[in-house]
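>> Question from a student workshop board

For tomorrow's exercise we were told to take the sequence and the ligand below, predict the bound structure, and bring the output to class. My setup keeps failing. Could a helper post the expected result so I can at least see what it should look like? The ligand is zinc ion.
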Amino acid sequence: MYDTVHVLATNQKRRSCKDLAMLIFFASIVHRLLLERTELGTLCESNPARSKLLFDLLLRHVQTSLINKKQVSHMKSCEIDQEDEYEFNYFGYDSDDEEQYEERTHAIAVYPLFSMVNHSCIPNVAPIHLLDGRCAFVASRPIAAGEQLFDVYGFATMEFDRSFRLLCLEQCYNFKCRCAVCESFSYVSVRNMNQEEEKFLRALSDSMQVEKHLPKLIEYMNEVGRRYPKHQYTAAEVMLVRSLRIIHSYSLEDDVENEFGYFGVPARTNS
Ligand SMILES: [Zn+2]
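>> Workshop helper replied:
Here is what the output should look like for this input. Compare the format with yours to find the bug.
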């Protein structure tokens, strides 16, 4: 399965000298350790070409894993201070709910199918990390037959303006984003949602029972989804993905606190 990721682009020619030198240095150390401490040393001892192949594979691995690694995150229920509540509220208005959720990273993983999905600053799918270790993609807006699937590589229009997105994507992933929103220079802030949408989302946010409001949210998205401009990333999309992540995250009962005070691997559920 890893073969799928290993043959993907390394972006080696696009990397800066400093960046590449660091990766070569890292690969050299691992190469040396493998030759000195494993049976690969015997295999490569009298065969410089094999030793060179091993180094090339390591360097490729370092580069492809850098680009394709994904954080495995789950939503964690937590109590927050009233003073900090505003900062946690994505939609910018107060809520009486004391219980909130925050995203916590549990692991780093590589998903071959996940790696096949290109970036857009206005994605139409989002990953949901399931408790059994699999990663599911959910549609975050209506997708037409034949339409390309896009994930966001961490810099959506919701939080960053165009120039900052372009800079971050170039530095982290070595490409210049040409998605619909970057090409059109359009930028729609989540706070510019229309009154109808704001009212609807406010009503949903008053309920912490995500399972109950999810059908309404999906119905709403299907109803108005086609009317959204292609360049608009909406609060409803963020809320939809967030709701699904909450549903598929573990509950307080699943937490296993180990002797060091860290949370252990969440228990499997039957859902
Ligand atoms: Zn873009």
